[in-house]
Design a protein that fits this description.
This protein is of the alpha+beta class. It has one domain: Trna Endonuclease, Chain: A, domain 1 (3-Layer(aba) Sandwich), CATH 3.40.1350. Helices cover about 20% and strands about 30% of the residues. The strands form three sheets. Strands 3-6-7-8 form a four-stranded mixed β-sheet. A two-stranded antiparallel ribbon has the order 1-2. Strands 4-5 form a two-stranded antiparallel sheet. A hairpin with a 5-residue loop joins strand 6 and strand 7. This is Intein C-terminal splicing domain-containing protein. InterPro entries: Intein_C (IPR030934).
Length: about 140
């Protein structure tokens, strides 16, 4: 078992984390403001984050729900991940949460392929049937 720390970074939203021995530049991508058109997707991310908490230490989960979702740089543009989990081997597994008819886009796939090739980050797409918490309270 490794000691882990829950890191809160105030005023600095871009910093490095280690994925194994590889430093990765990340950004706190969620400042707590979720517009109406993203509410259903945010609810799906919240549901999946709660599921991951059953299997992983909270300190090993990066999620938009916590306000520490990963914002990764690629040559094809920024890649904002819904959830990332640090595995027991120290590597990071990325998760893209899609709700209802939302699609995994060609641009997302291209960025994820680059992240896999460059850093070894595997991406899984999780499809959810989540209702909008604003439209259906």
């Amino acid at each position: 078992m490794q000691r882990t720390y829950d890191l809160t970074v105030s005023r600095i939203h871009t910093y490095y984390v280690l994925a194994g021995a590889t430093p990765v530049l990340v950004h706190n991508s969620n400042c707590g403001i979720r517009p109406h058109d993203k509410a259903r997707g945010a609810a799906g991310v919240d549901e999946m984050t709660e599921t991951f908490e059953k299997f992983y230490n909270k300190s090993d989960i990066y999620s938009e729900s916590y306000g520490n979702g990963l914002d990764l740089w690629t040559p094809y543009g920024r890649r904002q991940m819904d959830i990332a989990v640090r595995n027991s081997d120290g590597n990071i597994h990325l998760y893209e949460v899609k709700v209802n008819k939302s699609n995994y886009t060609r641009g997302q796939r291209r960025k994820d392929e680059w992240l896999a090739k460059t850093y070894g980050f595997e991406t899984s797409v999780v499809q959810r049937g989540t209702e909008c918490p604003i439209c259906n309270p």
